[in-house]
Amino acid sequence: MVKPNLRTKSIGTKVSDDEYAQLERAAQKSAKTLGEWCREVMLANANGQPAKLNGTGPEANAVMAEVVALRAILLNVLFKQANGERLTPEEMQRLIDRADSDKVQKARERLDQATHSKQS
Q1: pTM score > 0.70 for this model?
Q2: Is pLDDT above 70 for 104?
Q3: Residue 4 has what DSSP assignment?
Q4: DSSP string of 19-68?
């Protein structure tokens, strides 16, 4: 029989009240205790893995970022076409560049919104 890997060591650090509140919010968004969330983030970092956003893995974050960018491009193109306008290749490239520049931030916002609506 294999013995379970017991956690017998602890790590401590000092944080300000504001930092503690930030950490608590991040843990709550992931539906984890503060200790569980901190352990997960520290181990992911130690293993060279990106930290999870809102409890989702890096693959889901990447897909969400791409969906957000694609949505922004599609809505802009459809709006122009509905108004009888044509897009030049330069305008299309600007739309793509703009969508790509903020897709990760927008994805985080969408994931935050989804997490908040689940908790309500």
Answers
A1: no
A2: yes
A3: P
A4: HHHHHHHHHHHTT--HHHHHHHHHHHHHTTPPPPBTTB-HHHHHHHHHHH
